[in-house]
Structures are given as C-alpha cells and as structure tokens.
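Input (structure):
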C-alpha cells in the first residue's frame, strides 16, 4: 500500500536518503525543511514545504488540513561543539521545534512518528557495548536536547495521542552516490568525510584527536552505520508502528567498532594513496569506545546492518568526488 509521509529535515544528509528509500518503496514523501543546513539539490523532484519548525504559526498554516500517514522527524541542529556555545538556539530549535511539530501533528491527527535520536543520549559509556538500558546521561547540550525530544514523544504517547519510535543512531556514514546523495555539512565534523575531503585535496589540516587512549592502537573506537542501512531501519520502524503502535527506543549501529587509525587506513586503501594528518590533543568529552548493541532493533524490527566499512568508505569516496564537482559549479 502506498502511503504519504512528511519528512522533516528531508533536505539533510540522512533525511534525503530516507526520501529516496520511501520513493523506492512506492511511498510518497513531502520534505519539510528550512534549509539551514540542508541542500536544495537534495530535494529536487519532491514536494517541499519550506518552513522553520520554531515558528508555530507558520508551521500550522503550512500544514493546515494536510494528511500524512506519519512523520519522520530528522530536523535538528546537531553540532556538539556549537550546542555548548549556543544552548538556547539548540533548545529552541530541537526541543521547542519538536513541541511545535507535535502540536501540529496532533491537530491534524497524524499519529505515527519515527524520530532521529542519537547515541549522545547515553553520555560516557559504562560498558564495552551500549544497549538501550544503559543510563541516560548526556554530556553535551546536543545530547540533552535529543533526550528531551525523546521525553516529549514519550509524554505525548502516554497521553494516548501518538505512536513513536526513537532511533538512536551511532555514527552515520556512507552515501548513495549513484542517486547524487551524500554527506555535506559545513562545517564538517565527522571523521570519514573529513578524511576523504583531505584526500581530495582540501587544504585544511586533518587532525586525529588523541592517540593515547586505552584502545589497541591508542585512537578512539566508534561504530559506523551505513546511511542506507539507517534508511531501511526507518521504513521498518514506521511499518511496525502501523502494525503494532507503541513507544520504542532502539539503537541503530553496526555493532562493529573501528578506531580512527583503522578508518584512515580504510580510506587510504580506497583512494590509493597516503592521507596526511597530524596528531592533536584529546578532545574533552570523547570516550575511548562507543559501540552499539543493536539486538533490540534486530528483535523488534527484524533489522540489522548489512553494509560493512568497505562499502561505507567506497560509497563516501564516490560521493566526495561528486560533491567536489557540485561545489565547483
Ligand atoms: N549524522 C549522524 O551521524 C547522526 C547521528 C545521530 C543522530 N543524528 C540525527 O539525525 C538527524 C539528521 O542528521 P543529518 O546528519 O542528516 O543532519 P543535517 O544537518 O544534514 O540535516 C538536518 C536537516 O534539518 C533541517 N533543519 C534543522 N533545523 C530546522 C528547523 N528549525 N526547521 C526546519 N528544518 C530544520 C536542516 O536544514 C537539514 O536539512 C538529526 O536530527 C541528527 O541529530 C545524526
């Protein structure tokens, strides 16, 4: 059955891949975005509602009498460093914006929401792998706002008004370069695109933050999940909500941990040349290891990551060359 979904933040990195997956699954997708970090080229061919979710009156009027079978809520600010410098912006954008969106959703009787949460809600890990039962103790404002967004959804669910899944992503990576989609943030804070931008000739330095952690090679270990695997998990989460309803929090990760040096080596293999980098001091708040236990998503959604590091890096490198061409236009 073809359904029609609203995708907030659908002009951004992960949201634009979800739009492709929805269309691929014969659904309709309408993007809602203010283009603060999203890209117009990523929405070509799709209906777009340009509005800032912080503006309740504008949101209400843009969505009046619209019917959607559910909402995928990606729209958020997500730079950890910036969140500490601009906490009010982050609370207004992420938390107030979500409250506004939920208000309009309830007014229009949309009752299913899949929300982009993050591993940042856990804070400093207390175990080698992180399951959903891990204490929730964010160590930055970004993580605090994401936890508050989860709590908002939970409260609205308890009121009997909404079924929701909060998907706690670990590190999203990779691209669908054949569909002209990929990661493009300014500034870019994620490791793989930064390594590949350096390999493609960008002049700024590439720094590894700390090589004296208690890990096999001294650099931090993270869990990288291909953006196309993430998109599939969203489709499954929405389908599950339509079947069973409820409120769920699920980790989305590959359950494999790679160190910064391993990522560098994987990128060097893909590009076929060494990539120059420096070693800098540790960044405050960076735990040595963050790896998901994604067993609950496996049980509840029948989902697991199917794409490994090679596919992530190869697709990200193809996309980086496409991105350089777009940038040069
Ligand atoms: N990229 C990751 O590794 C990662 C990891 C965990 C969680 N997340 C979450 O996933 C979501 C998507 O991440 P992304 O990397 O695609 O980010 P992104 O910045 O590429 O996309 C966010 C989109 O939301 C839009 N937006 C932001 N504020 C808005 C507002 N007030 N009104 C309307 N639109 C607004 C932006 O213009 C952009 O298109 C975010 O909620 C992020 O917190 C991302």
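Output (sequence):
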């Amino acid at each position: 059955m073809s359904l029609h979904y609203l995708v907030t933040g659908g002009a951004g990195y992960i949201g634009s891949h979800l739009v492709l997956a929805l269309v691929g699954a014969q659904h309709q997708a309408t993007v809602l975005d203010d283009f603060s970090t999203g890209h117009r080229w990523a929405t070509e061919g799709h209906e777009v509602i340009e509005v800032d979710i912080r503006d309740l009156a504008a949101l209400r009027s843009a969505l009046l009498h619209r019917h959607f079978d559910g909402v995928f809520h990606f729209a958020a600010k997500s730079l950890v460093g910036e969140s500490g410098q601009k906490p009010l912006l982050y609370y207004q954008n992420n938390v107030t914006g979500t409250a506004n969106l939920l208000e309009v959703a309830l007014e229009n009787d949309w009752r299913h929401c899949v929300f982009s949460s993050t591993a940042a809600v856990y804070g400093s890990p207390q175990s080698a792998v992180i399951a959903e039962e891990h204490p929730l103790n964010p160590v930055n404002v970004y993580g605090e706002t994401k936890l508050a967004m989860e709590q908002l959804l939970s409260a609205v669910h308890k009121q009997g008004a909404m079924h929701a899944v909060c998907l706690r992503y670990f590190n999203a990576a990779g691209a669908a370069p054949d569909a002209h989609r990929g990661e493009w943030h300014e500034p870019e804070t994620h490791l793989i695109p930064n390594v590949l931008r350096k390999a493609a000739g960008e002049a700024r330095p590439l720094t590894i933050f700390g090589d004296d952690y208690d890990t096999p090679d001294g650099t931090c270990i993270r869990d990288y999940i291909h953006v196309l695997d993430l998109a599939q998990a969203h489709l499954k989460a929405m389908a599950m909500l339509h079947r069973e309803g409820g409120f769920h929090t699920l980790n989305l990760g590959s359950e494999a941990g790679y160190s910064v040096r391993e990522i560098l080596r994987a990128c060097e293999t893909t590009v076929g040349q060494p990539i120059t980098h420096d070693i800098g001091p540790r960044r405050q708040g960076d735990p040595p290891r963050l790896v998901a236990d994604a067993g609950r998503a496996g049980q509840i959604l029948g989902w697991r990551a199917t794409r490994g590091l090679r596919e992530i890096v190869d697709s990200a490198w193809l996309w980086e060359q496409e991105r350089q061409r777009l940038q040069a236009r």
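Notes: The mean pLDDT is 97. The longest strand covers residues 112-118.
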